[in-house]
């Protein structure tokens, strides 16, 4: 017998398998059942439990495929009989079943029992016909968990399952070489690879599949932690120029600061200074809640570089963010910012902004100034990464929202340090749950700003269902009016610029009804009697920059009472007189985003209010999220909650690990395995940094982590 996919699947089948990521026998083995049906006895057709999973064995009486009248596609009706009763089972778009479910065959069907037109039926069940050679199912088989595979187009479950089982018997021993070290398996009682694969595809008990699942988690945990430990160890060997931690510019900056640093900022500043003084490159993550004062911390680190005669670069993912950072730095430096490279005093700092949209001539001049050391600090976008950007002496890189940059991009910047490697500080705009910091970012040292400068802010948040309480809007409008009368400003955030058509939630078809655009929403507010005497402004991303600046300015000086805007105000915007925030259709925003938006009010410490409006009813699940945001101002708690409800694929999807590479492991729940795996990874890397003696482990890392993340250890 042979063990290649070609011997079991036609080219067309292999095309379908490839769509599911299966191109080899090894990958087919790792195509695990979506779930297992746990049978008791087979259920007679007369006793089907509605809403539950049942396994039946019955004879096919007739099979017939026809086109559907309403929709595109076909429907195959199979009528079966178990000796006492008959039942109709419908399959959609599987016309080929005509040739498979031949009348007279005795077939086992497993699926969820549903009611259709008053009759009980199984909803798209999986099915198996009795093996040609077996005369009947053995009692063990009928009482073992029954694997249900994700659907592969054109390949029936039976055939897929059978092929996997045969291949498990005949595959090359190389397919079963175990990437988990024997010592680890022994210590944590994990089944070896062959056993675990058998437990997935021919399970004998639920306990066996659970034990196998633990092993798959371990594979992912060990791959992740080994890569992280290897990275950390590689970083630890990169030679960097040590940077002074006190000098003229740092001293003047600290002396001139209009506020005193929080104790968190002081502590993190010391952590960074200690790293910078070393001859190995810093790799540190800085995170903290919205408004915790990360920019000051980053700027102080950059000034240390400048005091040492080195340059610092701050990389931001968008032009807007780069401009905002530049503006914050400008504001924080005040008179300490040099007017030009030519006019700078000893303790002054020359700062520049570099973006892709800069005129070519200016950009050229800036490149020259950077290369000749006439600029101390540059804030920029991807333009910083281009080959034409060269530094005289780059000592420190600050990467904002580092998850938006790939490893290669960060490496490109790191390569600009010349003979030594620049120190690196990466920043996250939002707090990172502890579990994620421990795992996803375990290759970095982590600094947390745990404290808020102004103390706990006084923002009261209310989640408001306009469906349940339409008249509450009157009250909110009165509050806005009252704030305006007291000289305070209100942000009204709206989720879209243009009107958009509402789709039917069931069919996805357009309904012809429209949702308001931001201008109509503004108009409806302007026309409300409560706000008749108030002045409104409009702000969104498609307005010309000059116009945006004008509106923002008018709002901060109080010429405008109510600013209706899109999320352009999400980051950076600092208007101390704003004390009210009303977010329309709040259910459309993410939790972190709502929290970030709310951080825009009460900036001067005065009591503020935030209203999260929704058309959903209070009983709706969408309302629960809003209720949670309303219940706490703790960004860390919200980050944990977000990770929990959104699922990790989405959260980690925006991290350095890319897509949903972790299929089995939960960084939120499997913290114990992660900690154990880390302890196992450390001695492995200490003994063999590049895993030269563990090719299987190297391959495991390649398989588990996306290509650009599995970086330090590359399979050959
Ligand atoms: P974030 O961590 O969200 O990036 P910022 O760095 O933008 O926060 O800081 C938010 C605001 O708080 C800014 O206006 C900043 O100048 C101010 N700030 C930072 N540190 C302090 C402090 N120790 N005391 C008072 N205000 C501070
Ligand atoms: Mg910031």
From TrEMBL:
Q: Is Thylakoid one of the keywords UniProt gives this record?
A: no
Q: Where is the Helicase C-terminal domain?
A: 475-644
The protein's UniProt keywords, in alphabetical order, are: ATP-binding, DNA damage, DNA repair, DNA-binding, Helicase, Hydrolase, Nucleotide-binding
SUPFAM superfamilies of this UniProt entry? Nucleic acid-binding proteins, P-loop containing nucleoside triphosphate hydrolases
Q: Name the CDD domains on file.
A: DEXHc_RecG (cd17992), RecG_wedge_OBF (cd04488)
Gene Ontology molecular function: any one: helicase activity
In this chain the Helicase ATP-binding domain maps to 275-449
ATP-binding keyword on record: yes
Protein name listed in UniProt: Probable DNA 3'-5' helicase RecG
Annotated source species: Brevibacterium metallidurans
